[in-house]
Design brief:
It contains eight helices and 13 strands. The chain is of the alpha+beta class. It has a single domain, classed as 4-Layer Sandwich (Glutamine Phosphoribosylpyrophosphate, subunit 1, domain 1), CATH 3.60.20.10. The strands form two sheets. Strands 1, 4, 5, 6, 7, 8, 9 and 10 form an eight-stranded antiparallel sheet that branches.
Length: 273
Protein backbone atom coordinates (compact mmCIF):
# COMPACT_ATOMS: atom_id res chain seq x y z
CA UNK A 1 0.00 0.00 0.00
CA UNK A 2 1.63 3.30 -1.09
CA UNK A 3 1.52 6.58 0.85
CA UNK A 4 -1.22 8.08 -1.34
CA UNK A 5 -3.52 5.09 -0.79
CA UNK A 6 -2.91 5.19 2.97
CA UNK A 7 -3.64 8.91 3.08
CA UNK A 8 -6.86 8.41 1.11
CA UNK A 9 -8.13 5.62 3.37
CA UNK A 10 -7.36 7.57 6.53
CA UNK A 11 -8.75 10.91 5.33
CA UNK A 12 -12.21 11.64 6.81
CA UNK A 13 -13.31 14.34 4.36
CA UNK A 14 -16.12 13.81 1.88
CA UNK A 15 -14.50 16.33 -0.48
CA UNK A 16 -12.16 14.72 -2.99
CA UNK A 17 -10.83 18.08 -4.20
CA UNK A 18 -9.88 19.09 -0.63
CA UNK A 19 -8.08 15.76 -0.21
CA UNK A 20 -6.10 16.32 -3.42
CA UNK A 21 -5.31 19.91 -2.40
CA UNK A 22 -3.74 18.65 0.83
CA UNK A 23 -1.87 15.64 -0.54
CA UNK A 24 -1.07 16.38 -4.21
CA UNK A 25 -1.98 19.97 -5.13
CA UNK A 26 -0.02 19.65 -8.37
CA UNK A 27 -2.83 17.45 -9.70
CA UNK A 28 -5.46 20.17 -9.38
CA UNK A 29 -6.69 22.01 -12.50
CA UNK A 30 -4.37 24.88 -13.40
CA UNK A 31 -1.53 23.75 -11.14
CA UNK A 32 0.81 23.10 -14.06
CA UNK A 33 -0.20 26.12 -16.16
CA UNK A 34 2.65 28.23 -14.85
CA UNK A 35 3.18 31.65 -16.37
CA UNK A 36 2.29 30.90 -20.01
CA UNK A 37 0.56 33.86 -21.68
CA UNK A 38 -3.16 33.22 -21.48
CA UNK A 39 -3.66 34.29 -25.12
CA UNK A 40 -1.56 31.26 -26.12
CA UNK A 41 -3.89 28.83 -24.40
CA UNK A 42 -7.19 27.68 -25.94
CA UNK A 43 -10.33 29.42 -24.72
CA UNK A 44 -13.79 27.81 -24.80
CA UNK A 45 -17.12 29.54 -25.46
CA UNK A 46 -20.28 29.65 -25.68
CA UNK A 47 -22.73 27.79 -23.36
CA UNK A 48 -26.51 28.22 -23.09
CA UNK A 49 -29.12 26.73 -20.76
CA UNK A 50 -32.89 26.65 -21.31
CA UNK A 51 -35.27 25.48 -18.56
CA UNK A 52 -38.85 24.39 -19.20
CA UNK A 53 -41.61 22.66 -17.28
CA UNK A 54 -40.20 19.28 -18.41
CA UNK A 55 -36.52 19.82 -17.67
CA UNK A 56 -33.48 21.80 -18.73
CA UNK A 57 -31.29 21.78 -21.83
CA UNK A 58 -27.57 22.61 -21.63
CA UNK A 59 -25.84 23.25 -24.95
CA UNK A 60 -22.40 24.33 -26.09
CA UNK A 61 -20.79 25.20 -29.39
CA UNK A 62 -17.65 23.32 -30.44
CA UNK A 63 -15.03 26.02 -31.11
CA UNK A 64 -11.98 26.82 -29.02
CA UNK A 65 -9.87 29.85 -29.94
CA UNK A 66 -6.28 30.84 -29.25
CA UNK A 67 -5.97 34.56 -29.75
CA UNK A 68 -7.34 35.23 -33.22
CA UNK A 69 -6.89 31.63 -34.36
CA UNK A 70 -9.17 28.59 -34.12
CA UNK A 71 -7.41 26.16 -31.79
CA UNK A 72 -9.95 23.34 -32.08
CA UNK A 73 -13.15 22.91 -34.07
CA UNK A 74 -14.77 20.08 -32.13
CA UNK A 75 -14.06 20.64 -28.44
CA UNK A 76 -16.71 19.45 -25.99
CA UNK A 77 -17.75 22.02 -23.39
CA UNK A 78 -20.80 20.47 -21.72
CA UNK A 79 -20.71 17.32 -19.59
CA UNK A 80 -23.04 15.17 -17.51
CA UNK A 81 -21.79 15.61 -13.94
CA UNK A 82 -24.02 13.03 -12.25
CA UNK A 83 -27.42 11.36 -12.61
CA UNK A 84 -29.39 14.62 -12.34
CA UNK A 85 -27.03 17.46 -13.19
CA UNK A 86 -24.74 18.76 -15.91
CA UNK A 87 -22.00 21.35 -16.25
CA UNK A 88 -20.88 23.58 -19.10
CA UNK A 89 -17.58 25.44 -19.09
CA UNK A 90 -16.26 28.65 -20.62
CA UNK A 91 -12.83 30.18 -20.23
CA UNK A 92 -9.35 28.64 -20.29
CA UNK A 93 -10.16 25.33 -21.94
CA UNK A 94 -7.59 23.03 -20.34
CA UNK A 95 -8.30 24.17 -16.79
CA UNK A 96 -12.04 24.25 -17.41
CA UNK A 97 -12.23 20.69 -18.75
CA UNK A 98 -10.10 19.41 -15.85
CA UNK A 99 -12.42 21.24 -13.44
CA UNK A 100 -15.48 19.60 -15.00
CA UNK A 101 -13.88 16.16 -14.69
CA UNK A 102 -12.80 16.81 -11.10
CA UNK A 103 -16.30 18.01 -10.23
CA UNK A 104 -17.75 14.73 -11.50
CA UNK A 105 -15.31 12.78 -9.31
CA UNK A 106 -16.12 15.10 -6.40
CA UNK A 107 -19.82 14.21 -6.58
CA UNK A 108 -19.11 10.48 -6.90
CA UNK A 109 -16.70 10.61 -3.96
CA UNK A 110 -19.18 12.43 -1.73
CA UNK A 111 -21.92 9.90 -2.46
CA UNK A 112 -19.62 6.96 -1.74
CA UNK A 113 -18.38 8.44 1.55
CA UNK A 114 -21.71 9.78 2.82
CA UNK A 115 -23.96 7.09 1.34
CA UNK A 116 -26.26 9.68 -0.25
CA UNK A 117 -25.88 12.26 -3.04
CA UNK A 118 -25.54 15.95 -2.38
CA UNK A 119 -28.63 18.10 -2.77
CA UNK A 120 -28.67 20.30 -5.87
CA UNK A 121 -27.85 23.33 -3.70
CA UNK A 122 -24.99 21.35 -2.18
CA UNK A 123 -23.63 20.51 -5.63
CA UNK A 124 -23.85 24.15 -6.71
CA UNK A 125 -22.04 25.30 -3.56
CA UNK A 126 -19.38 22.61 -3.89
CA UNK A 127 -18.67 23.78 -7.45
CA UNK A 128 -18.42 27.36 -6.17
CA UNK A 129 -15.68 26.36 -3.71
CA UNK A 130 -13.75 24.62 -6.49
CA UNK A 131 -13.90 27.74 -8.66
CA UNK A 132 -12.77 29.85 -5.71
CA UNK A 133 -9.68 27.67 -5.37
CA UNK A 134 -8.70 28.72 -8.92
CA UNK A 135 -8.79 32.44 -8.04
CA UNK A 136 -4.99 32.76 -8.17
CA UNK A 137 -4.95 31.51 -11.76
CA UNK A 138 -7.95 33.67 -12.63
CA UNK A 139 -6.00 36.76 -11.54
CA UNK A 140 -3.33 35.73 -14.07
CA UNK A 141 -5.91 35.57 -16.83
CA UNK A 142 -6.79 31.87 -16.70
CA UNK A 143 -10.45 32.38 -15.88
CA UNK A 144 -12.91 29.49 -15.66
CA UNK A 145 -16.64 30.23 -15.51
CA UNK A 146 -19.11 27.32 -15.51
CA UNK A 147 -22.85 27.05 -16.06
CA UNK A 148 -24.44 24.40 -13.84
CA UNK A 149 -27.90 22.90 -14.30
CA UNK A 150 -29.82 20.15 -12.56
CA UNK A 151 -33.15 18.67 -11.63
CA UNK A 152 -34.19 19.45 -8.07
CA UNK A 153 -36.29 16.40 -7.06
CA UNK A 154 -37.75 17.88 -3.83
CA UNK A 155 -38.92 20.96 -5.73
CA UNK A 156 -39.88 19.00 -8.85
CA UNK A 157 -38.28 21.47 -11.25
CA UNK A 158 -35.03 22.25 -13.09
CA UNK A 159 -32.66 24.95 -11.87
CA UNK A 160 -29.81 26.93 -13.43
CA UNK A 161 -26.76 28.33 -11.60
CA UNK A 162 -24.15 30.79 -12.85
CA UNK A 163 -20.81 31.76 -11.31
CA UNK A 164 -18.20 34.46 -11.38
CA UNK A 165 -14.43 34.01 -11.30
CA UNK A 166 -14.30 34.43 -7.50
CA UNK A 167 -16.68 31.53 -6.90
CA UNK A 168 -19.83 33.57 -6.45
CA UNK A 169 -22.86 31.38 -7.12
CA UNK A 170 -26.12 32.82 -8.46
CA UNK A 171 -29.34 31.05 -9.35
CA UNK A 172 -30.92 32.16 -12.61
CA UNK A 173 -34.67 32.52 -12.09
CA UNK A 174 -35.54 33.72 -15.59
CA UNK A 175 -35.48 30.26 -17.13
CA UNK A 176 -32.50 30.72 -19.41
CA UNK A 177 -28.87 31.80 -19.26
CA UNK A 178 -25.74 32.01 -21.42
CA UNK A 179 -22.03 32.39 -20.66
CA UNK A 180 -18.92 32.93 -22.74
CA UNK A 181 -17.87 35.47 -25.33
CA UNK A 182 -21.03 34.94 -27.37
CA UNK A 183 -23.36 35.14 -24.36
CA UNK A 184 -24.60 38.65 -25.16
CA UNK A 185 -25.94 37.54 -28.53
CA UNK A 186 -27.13 34.16 -27.25
CA UNK A 187 -29.11 35.76 -24.41
CA UNK A 188 -30.74 38.15 -26.86
CA UNK A 189 -31.86 35.16 -28.90
CA UNK A 190 -33.07 33.29 -25.81
CA UNK A 191 -35.02 36.32 -24.61
CA UNK A 192 -36.75 36.45 -27.98
CA UNK A 193 -37.60 32.74 -28.25
CA UNK A 194 -37.93 31.47 -24.69
CA UNK A 195 -41.17 29.67 -23.86
CA UNK A 196 -41.39 28.34 -20.27
CA UNK A 197 -44.20 25.97 -21.24
CA UNK A 198 -42.19 24.36 -24.04
CA UNK A 199 -41.15 20.72 -24.07
CA UNK A 200 -37.55 19.58 -24.21
CA UNK A 201 -37.60 19.21 -28.01
CA UNK A 202 -38.58 22.86 -28.47
CA UNK A 203 -36.05 23.90 -25.81
CA UNK A 204 -33.30 22.10 -27.75
CA UNK A 205 -34.28 23.95 -30.92
CA UNK A 206 -34.24 27.27 -29.05
CA UNK A 207 -30.76 26.46 -27.68
CA UNK A 208 -29.46 25.71 -31.18
CA UNK A 209 -30.95 28.98 -32.47
CA UNK A 210 -29.20 30.84 -29.63
CA UNK A 211 -25.82 29.29 -30.44
CA UNK A 212 -26.39 30.05 -34.12
CA UNK A 213 -27.09 33.72 -33.30
CA UNK A 214 -23.99 33.84 -31.10
CA UNK A 215 -21.83 32.40 -33.89
CA UNK A 216 -23.32 34.96 -36.29
CA UNK A 217 -21.85 37.86 -34.33
CA UNK A 218 -19.03 36.39 -32.21
CA UNK A 219 -15.93 35.07 -33.97
CA UNK A 220 -15.01 32.88 -30.98
CA UNK A 221 -18.27 30.91 -31.21
CA UNK A 222 -18.45 28.20 -33.84
CA UNK A 223 -21.55 27.58 -35.91
CA UNK A 224 -22.60 24.12 -37.13
CA UNK A 225 -20.17 22.55 -39.63
CA UNK A 226 -22.35 20.29 -41.77
CA UNK A 227 -19.56 18.97 -43.98
CA UNK A 228 -17.42 17.90 -41.02
CA UNK A 229 -20.53 16.82 -39.07
CA UNK A 230 -19.61 19.09 -36.18
CA UNK A 231 -22.74 20.09 -34.33
CA UNK A 232 -23.42 21.57 -30.87
CA UNK A 233 -23.35 19.21 -27.91
CA UNK A 234 -26.67 19.08 -26.04
CA UNK A 235 -27.49 17.57 -22.66
CA UNK A 236 -30.98 17.24 -21.20
CA UNK A 237 -31.75 16.92 -17.49
CA UNK A 238 -35.19 16.01 -16.22
CA UNK A 239 -36.83 13.88 -13.54
CA UNK A 240 -35.63 10.70 -15.25
CA UNK A 241 -31.98 11.76 -15.29
CA UNK A 242 -29.28 13.52 -17.26
CA UNK A 243 -28.15 12.36 -20.69
CA UNK A 244 -26.28 13.63 -23.71
CA UNK A 245 -28.45 13.92 -26.81
CA UNK A 246 -27.31 11.65 -29.63
CA UNK A 247 -25.32 13.20 -32.45
CA UNK A 248 -27.91 12.06 -35.00
CA UNK A 249 -30.70 13.77 -33.08
CA UNK A 250 -28.70 17.00 -32.77
CA UNK A 251 -27.88 16.80 -36.48
CA UNK A 252 -31.58 16.53 -37.36
CA UNK A 253 -32.50 19.46 -35.13
CA UNK A 254 -29.64 21.54 -36.54
CA UNK A 255 -30.69 20.76 -40.10
CA UNK A 256 -34.21 21.96 -39.26
CA UNK A 257 -32.76 25.21 -37.89
CA UNK A 258 -30.60 25.67 -41.01
CA UNK A 259 -33.63 25.13 -43.26
CA UNK A 260 -35.60 27.76 -41.38
CA UNK A 261 -32.65 30.15 -41.61
CA UNK A 262 -32.50 29.70 -45.39
CA UNK A 263 -35.64 31.83 -45.69
CA UNK A 264 -35.09 33.88 -42.53
CA UNK A 265 -31.31 34.33 -41.97
CA UNK A 266 -31.80 36.25 -38.73
CA UNK A 267 -33.91 33.47 -37.25
CA UNK A 268 -37.51 33.35 -36.04
CA UNK A 269 -39.14 36.43 -34.62
CA UNK A 270 -40.56 36.65 -31.12
CA UNK A 271 -43.72 34.57 -30.83
CA UNK A 272 -43.03 32.69 -34.08
CA UNK A 273 -41.40 29.24 -33.94
Amino acid sequence: MNEMTQAYLLDPTSSFSEFVARTSPNFLPGAATGSAPHDLTPTATTIVAVATSEGVVLAGDRRATMGSMIAQRDIQKVFVSDDHSAIGIAGSAGIAIDLAKLFRVELEHYEKIEGAPLTLDGKANRLASMIRSNLGMALQGFVVVPLFVGWDAPCGKPRIFTYDATGGCYEELGGYQAIGSGSLFAKGSLKKLYNPAAGLDEAMTVAIHALFDAADDDSATGGPDVYRRIYPVLITVDASGASQVSEDRVADLTQDVLKSRATSPDGPKAGVR
